[in-house]
Design a protein that fits this description.
single chain; alpha/beta; 7-stranded mixed sheet; 42% helix
């Protein structure tokens, strides 16, 4: 069959599954399989596919039908204008998280010195690598409990030519040494009982990166209980939060009595997405 014929079949299957933007997705998958640009797909529409190419394309379509995220099939996700490799071992970086990264960059560029930054729950390395790319003079430590996730994060650092990151396998602060000007984290924050109600694509992502405990706040408590010890005197902490967690996370911050100047930031959809707080002056 030709490119056009395969596209038509793929499009119809995706439509039946009510997958958003089926035409765009069908083309992206075929571009990935054939290693062609979308313009070439149009120009060479009558080109015949090999049996192997057809099978790979149809297998990819089937994975989408079964609820696999497109990014896990193509192993590609753009974040902060950088290209990240992703698979089932790491959370897919999302545009909402760019809000937190942009705030850290803005905060850092207004400081007179090169900073030391700690990224907890780094996953694919999206936050740490983006900061490393746009703040090349900063020293960054990226931490994750998952050895497999760290392998992917290292791969992404190399792919994006970022060399100012030290990767550490650690359960949060367990193996972290020294103090930092900034601590940043996008921790797991989905309530355990809610995970099974999420979209099929999200449920394919690692539970370790989603599950925030019964109330979704477990990691905020763990991080904020110890973060003050690892922050320099004028340090600040930046935390991504769920759209409905602003008040609860702010309360946890206030209860520690270690922070001041608490600020929040909304994402492009108008949802509260980030909380920032400065370590309280002595």
């Amino acid at each position: 069959m030709t490119i056009e014929e395969n596209l038509k079949i793929g499009l119809e299957k995706l439509k039946k599954k009510k997958i958003e933007e089926p035409r765009k997705i069908a083309r992206l998958l075929l571009c990935f399989v054939l290693k062609m640009r979308k313009e070439e797909i149009v120009v060479y529409g009558t080109k015949e596919l090999t049996k192997k190419e057809e099978e790979e394309y149809q297998n990819s379509i089937q994975k989408l039908e079964e609820g696999y995220p497109l990014q896990y099939i193509t192993h590609h996700q753009e974040f902060m204008k950088l290209d990240f490799y992703v698979d089932e071992k790491v959370l897919i970086p999302r545009a909402d998280t760019e809000i937190t990264v942009e705030e850290v960059i803005w905060y850092s560029k207004n400081k007179p010195k090169n900073l030391r930054i700690l990224d907890l729950c780094t996953g694919s390395g999206a936050i740490a690598i983006s900061l490393g790319k746009y703040l090349p003079n900063c020293e960054i430590v990226a931490v994750d409990i998952s050895k497999e996730a760290l392998k992917i994060a290292k791969k992404n650092a190399k792919q994006n030519e970022v060399n100012n990151i030290t990767f550490v396998q650690s359960n949060l602060f367990e193996k972290v040494r020294g103090t930092f000007d900034i601590i940043v984290s996008n921790p797991p924050y989905i309530k355990t009982g809610v995970i099974e109600t999420l979209e099929p694509q999200v449920q394919k992502e690692p539970i370790l990166a989603l599950d925030g405990g019964g109330d979704g706040l477990m990691f905020y408590r763990k991080i904020l209980t110890k973060a003050g010890t690892y922050l320099k005197q004028d340090g600040a902490i930046f935390l991504e939060i769920g759209y409905d967690q602003k008040e609860e996370v702010v309360n946890i911050i206030q209860e520690t009595k270690e922070y001041e100047e608490i600020q929040t930031k909304k994402d492009l959809s108008g949802n509260n997405r980030m909380v920032m707080a400065k370590k309280r002056s002595l």
